[in-house]
């Protein structure tokens, strides 16, 4: 069966996951993660992609982005992926693939899922047992949004401005969102949409979006149960 093409509708947010091959570590030092942040920042600017949130785990990373053209996201990910693999292989004295195939992505309905996706990313290290609080993990966008430090990689989505009229109010509101967490149902929806590549949104949103692309955006009909995506 032919591989399903990715959804490429510019101007909407996408949840992106890139994993290491066979779940192997893709970051083994702080320098590795710093380089990845630099590569993402450089290529996001070059290819016109706004990065709203991210988290760099040991064997995978998540991004929440809005590409401005149909080719912005694939070009950014291709450039970042190739350059990082060359660096990592040279540093580790290894050769061959580093990534578990293509990156996975899902277009998300901003007003329904964008903030939940941000919280999901920022709580990833907590769910993995790496830290007890999101602020304790230095390789995510959480510190930027709660005012702990400024991150050059981040371009806040317009919805963030609706959290409060002042920076302090927005920071407090975001802290409260993360403290409240994400329901199991929303966690499952975020994981499954990115694994499958379908749009994550209300039926009316998906139907309206379908008019902008020939690529099918949701499952046509129920079938066999889809294998549960791994926790990440």
Characterization of the model:
- A hairpin with a 3-residue loop joins strand 2 and strand 3 (60-67).
- Helix 1 (30-47) packs antiparallel against helix 2.
- This protein has a 4-stranded antiparallel sheet with strand order 2-3-1-4, sandwiched between helices.
- It has helices at 30-47, 72-92, 110-122, 124-127, 142-145, 167-180, 184-196, 203-210; strands at 14-19, 49-56, 60-67, 104-107.
- The protein is globular.
- By secondary structure, it is of the alpha+beta class.
Helices and strands, with pairings:
Elements: E1 14-19, H1 30-47, E2 49-56, E3 60-67, H2 72-92, E4 104-107, H3 110-122, H4 124-127, H5 142-145, H6 167-180, H7 184-196, H8 203-210
Antiparallel strand pairs: 1-3, 1-4, 2-3
Helix pairs in contact: 1-2
């Amino acid at each position: 069966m032919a591989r399903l093409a990715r959804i490429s509708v510019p101007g909407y947010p996408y949840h992106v996951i890139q994993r290491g091959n066979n779940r192997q570590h893709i970051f083994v030092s702080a320098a590795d993660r710093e380089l990845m942040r630099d590569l993402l920042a450089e290529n996001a600017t070059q290819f016109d992609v706004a990065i709203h949130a991210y988290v760099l785990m040991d064997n995978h990373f998540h991004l929440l982005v809005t590409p401005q053209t149909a080719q912005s996201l694939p070009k950014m990910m291709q450039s970042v992926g190739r350059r990082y693999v060359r660096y990592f292989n040279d540093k580790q004295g290894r050769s061959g693939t580093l990534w578990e195939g293509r990156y996975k992505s899902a277009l998300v309905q901003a007003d329904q899922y964008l903030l939940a996706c941000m919280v999901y990313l920022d709580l990833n290290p907590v769910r993995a047992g790496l830290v007890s609080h999101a602020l304790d993990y230095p390789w995510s966008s959480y510190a930027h949004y709660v005012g702990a430090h400024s991150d050059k990689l981040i371009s806040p989505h317009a919805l963030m401005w609706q959290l409060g009229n002042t920076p302090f109010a927005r920071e407090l509101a975001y802290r409260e969102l993360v403290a409240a967490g994400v329901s199991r149902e929303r966690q499952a929806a975020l994981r499954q949409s990115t694994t499958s590549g379908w749009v994550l949104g209300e039926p009316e949103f998906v139907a309206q979006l379908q008019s902008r692309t020939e690529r099918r955006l949701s499952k046509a009909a129920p079938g066999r149960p889809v294998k549960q995506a791994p926790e990440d």
